[in-house]
Write a structure and sequence with these properties.
Elements (H helix, E strand, L loop, with lengths): L7 H22 L3 E6 L6 H12 L5 E7 L4 H7 L4 E6 L8 H8 L9 E5 L16 E7 L6 H4 L1 H6 L2 E5 L11 H11 L4 E4 L8 H16 L5
The protein binds guanosine-5'-diphosphate and magnesium ion.
The site of guanosine-5'-diphosphate (GDP) has 16 residues, from helix 2.
């Protein structure tokens, strides 16, 4: 029998990549710096968004895309903060992809937006595998998850530009070695920038806000690629 090759997987991945490139063109042509925020469920992504909006709303026009398997709980939390928000329900899929972002963009008025933050579906594995067209991937890890997570789920940490270690207010009550998290991450990804934060007490958030402001300035100067 004659052999035939069926390059299905490659084509699907190529299609995803093409959509990501299209999304990036939309972000760039509208002057929107875009962050893809990833973590496991409950690490504090929506809390970080609430704090970021509170901290930067007067200087930066922010919009949010919320990704969840189900419900609009997070979008409601963000809406209360007075910024544009779209909820994507993946209906079971454990990550967002470029086509979901493309549809969500149709519901946003992109004109005034400086910064778009995409809250990915809570999951430490799959979101890192899909390019959404974002400029930076940002990883949030809660100290309650334990210091072994970068070793066990390396891809997220390798692909992210920033690691935010959240819930440091809980450090007195748990056994988590932050230095171990930082050294493992540095060995996986020497370029990664790490900030220790608490979305509850606001400790460390100023460093995160400064990172955003710096990146927005670099983006406006055309030095973010
Ligand atoms: N103690 C403490 N709790 C936090 C902190 N950040 C978030 N939480 C709590 O962690 C839970 C999950 O937060 P949420 O923002 O919904 O996480 P998400 O699932 O990653 O979006 C909520 O009960 C938050 O109030 C923090 O810095 N310290
Ligand atoms: Mg959330």
């Amino acid at each position: 029998m004659e052999k035939v090759s069926i390059p299905v997987v490659k084509n699907v991945l190529e299609a995803h990549e093409k959509l990501a490139i299209k999304n990036r063109e939309i972000f760039d042509s509208n002057g929107i710096l875009t962050l893809n925020l990833m973590s496991s469920p409950g690490a504090g992504k929506t809390s970080l968004l609430e704090q970021t909006i509170k901290g930067l709303k007067n200087q930066v026009e922010i919009a949010v895309i919320e990704g969840d398997i189900q419900s609009d709980e997070d979008a409601r939390r963000i809406q209360k903060r007075g910024v544009q928000v779209v909820q994507i329900n993946t209906g079971g899929a454990c990550h967002l992809d470029g086509s979901m972002i493309q549809s969500a963009l149709e519901s946003l008025d992109l004109n005034p937006v400086d910064l778009l933050i995409i809250e990915n579906v809570g999951n430490l594995v799959c979101p890192a595998e899909f390019n959404l067209g974002e400029h930076f991937k940002v990883m949030l890890l809660s100290v309650t998850e334990g210091h072994d997570k970068p070793l066990k789920y390396p891809l997220m940490f390798q692909k992210s530009s920033v690691l935010l270690i959240n819930k440091i207010d809980l450090l007195p009550y748990i056994d988590c070695d932050i230095e171990k998290i930082k050294s493992t991450c540095k060995s996986l990804n020497p370029q990664i920038e790490t900030f220790e934060i608490s979305c509850k007490t606001s400790e460390g958030l100023e460093n995160w806000f400064n990172w955003i402001i710096n990146k927005l300035n670099e983006f406006k100067q055309g030095t973010v690629s």
